[in-house]
Write a structure and sequence with these properties.
Elements (H helix, E strand, L loop, with lengths): L1 H10 L11 H6 L7 E13 L9 E13 L5 E13 L2 E15 L5 E12 L4 E17 L3 E17 L6 E18 L4 E14 L4 E15 L4 E12 L9 E11 L2
Antiparallel strand pairs: 1-2, 2-3, 3-4, 4-5, 5-6, 6-7, 7-8, 8-9, 9-10, 10-11, 11-12
Amino acid sequence: MKKAILLFLFLCPLFANAQILNIERLRMEKDTARSFMVKTTFGLNVFNRSAAADEPVNLFGYNLDVNAIYYPSKHATILVSKFDYLRINDSDFLNFGFLHGRVNWYRDRKLNYETYAQYSFDNFRRLDPRWVFGGGIRNRLVDSNRLTLTLGIGALYEYERWQHPETEQFVEVDFVKSSNYVSLRYTINQYVDINTVNYYQVGYDQTISRLRNRVSSSTILNTKFTDKLSFTNSFDISYEDRPIIPITNVIFSFRTGLSLDF
């Protein structure tokens, strides 16, 4: 059974748990000739296979991604959602998702503004739900055909409910945090471009009289072989110095694959 689970996770990066929202990538994929774009991806995995008669492996899983961007006149509205679910036999092995909405005000200005709201859950890490409401200022420090460097400074309100892995009791927390990021997009040549976003969030927790820090990063490297064939690598990592409950304070995911356009 353990071998089957490990094999599945190795062969299906589709279910990798990504906590980082690379909103900047979605902004840059916008087609200037269109004011509204939607991209939806749905995947389903169902099978019953086992090497032994007394150890059946029944697997059911799905993933759903819906990304939308709307550019009317001066402002931009962005919607990003992702839901992953995996059940092996009678056990829920992975259940993760988020819904993120954002408005970028006066998007064409060098100094512009944004507001956002997000709902997410991560049952595998015993988090359900997380609510986030925030906003901030975006400053495009560099903006050229090959290089874009953006600094974001803002604040957010965050509510979380965790279930302690040992006591099974629920722990509810809420914070006002400083939320800041640096976004870099660099086109190395006509075939290779890199996009990275690095976040830093910090808030004061009165219950422990300490600051709680969160650092996260999302990096995407695209390599274009031809007009129809490209190679994409993405790496996400997040670190929290003082998790609310005793869980791993570093999580990451790596995805790689080929893309063929017809």
